[in-house]
């Protein structure tokens, strides 16, 4: 396997990791912005008020998106194994 093939494998892996993590990251960011806005408007500056709902939302997004995550991961793994002969030489 040459350096260009290794770079291509790493690039595909990083893109897949970004796509798989995007729904939970977006959900966490949206909740954080909403709670920060709520804290600013009400003047309540409690740290647990932002951390606990954000954890629940990210966990919920992970549970809801789990079938999609598994489908993407299985598809990526199968495509990697089916193209494995290209990397052997």
Strand count, sense and barrel status of the largest sheet are: none
Q: Segments where pLDDT lies below 50 for 5+ residues?
A: none
Number of helices: 4
What is the chain-wise order of helices and strands? HHHH
- The number of domains is 1
**Nearest-integer average pLDDT:** 88
The number of distinct β-strands equals 0
Which term fits the overall shape?
A: elongated
Q: Kindly state the percentage of residues in helix.
A: over 70%
- Radius of gyration computed on alpha carbons: 19 Å
Query: Which structural class fits the helix and strand makeup?
Result: mainly alpha
End-to-end distance, in Å? 6 Å
β-strand percent reads under 5%
Kindly describe this structure.
With about 90 residues, the chain is mainly alpha-helical. The protein has one domain. It has helices spanning about 5-40, 50-65, 65-80, 85-89. The chain is elongated, with a radius of gyration of 19 Å. The mean pLDDT is about 90.
Compose a concise summary of this entry.
This protein has 4 helices and no strands. The protein has helices at 3-42, 48-64, 66-82, 84-88. Helices cover 89% and strands 0% of the residues.
Descriptive terms for the model:
89% helix
What order do the helices and strands come in, and which of them pair?
Blueprint: H1 3-42, H2 48-64, H3 66-82, H4 84-88
